[in-house]
Amino acid sequence: MATAMSIEEKKALIESNLQEVLNPEIIDAVLKEGRPLKIYWGTATTGRPHCGYFVPCLKLAEFLKAGCNVKVLLADIHAFLDNLKAPIELVKLRAEYYKLVITELLKAVNVPIDKLTFTFGSDHQLTPAYTMDLLRMSTAVTEHDAKRAGAEVVKQVDNAPLSGLIYPLMQALDEQYLDVDAQFGGVDQRKIFALAKDVLPRVGFKERAHLMNPMVPGLQGGKMSSSDPDSKIDLLDTPDDVRKKLKKAFCPPKQVEENGVLSFTEFVLLPAGTLKYGKPQFVVERRDAEPLVYTDIKQMQDDWRSDVLTPQILKPAVTDALIALMAPIQAAFQASKEFQDIEKKAYPPPPAPEKKKKVKKDKGTFYPKKVEAKPDGHVEGEDAAKVNLGTEGGEKAIETLTLRDKS
Ligand SMILES: N[C@@H](Cc1ccc(O)cc1)C(=O)O
Known about the structure:
The chain has helices at about 5-15, 25-35, 55-65, 75-80, 90-110, 120-125, 130-140, 145-150, 165-175, 190-200, 240-250, 260-275, 295-305, 310-335, 335-345, 385-390, 390-400; strands at about 20, 40-45, 70-75, 115-120, 180-185, 210-215, 280-285, 290-295, 370-375, 380.
């Protein structure tokens, strides 16, 4: 069925809808060689995958359509390097959960998953060769540059742990160990990508191309935030949750910028319309008039500015479309005991609130913060390292990461 694409067509598809491409000549050279472009997208398995994940996944669909060889890296080790966002003993379970959810999400937008491979960070990052290369790399990067590289990705805190400096180095080295031509990510990864481009040649590896998606504002406008549950829709949220969150979502009439709902339509629902209609399309029903049928965002934005398209009619249309898109993911979850078990273990309920303790004086040493359990039960602050890492659980987690079944 698929007619062969020309090099130009492949290139156009690979680079479509991106905000920026670094070193496109690397992509050109591979396409000219006539082999598939090898590309990966990494995600740190920290919190829970949410609806924002549709955005990179739709781009992966385009890479695959262009004949690329696509890998998804479940960056389990990165998930705890970033300020213990995922406690070390839960990281492996979270990575498994991400794999299941992302698989279903890709299926929901018709991405042929047999042509894509998943890989865990801990599969290659714990080998002696990787360790040696990482140490070599650490001699070629200054503390200042490593810190700056991670500034938009790694959580910025006072007395930051050293792991935040290792994080960007490992992301750069992953390009070598995943044996790719290019890395894809949001434009928030730009500084890490620039570091990778700069530092890989300095340790004897080749420079890769970098492809960046624009950032999509959360439903509250601005960046999606994990501390504000209403800014994100969990992929397992019920239709009622979706309705509630969308009712509260930021959707100012006539304003196109920072409009969470309109942006979600642009980056997810319009492209996903291809599934239903064979081409990008989004339909907004109206009570007393013909439905508004959109095939590109320009037309929608014009109607938004002139108030033909209003929050009152857009929100219900987005709600229905999103619920429909999420339905197969939730059906897969409901149908699989394994899926449900992993979810339960990966996100245990938070422990009962601790009794009030006397607040110790800040001694100005490592991590001068109070211990506070996050909703998922992990701890940040003064004793975070002890609680999250130094326990038996932590050691077991290290073992499980090391001993991951390589099959
Ligand atoms: N930095 C990515 C995760 C990542 C980790 C390692 C990589 O090699 C690639 C990507 C994120 O923000 O989620």
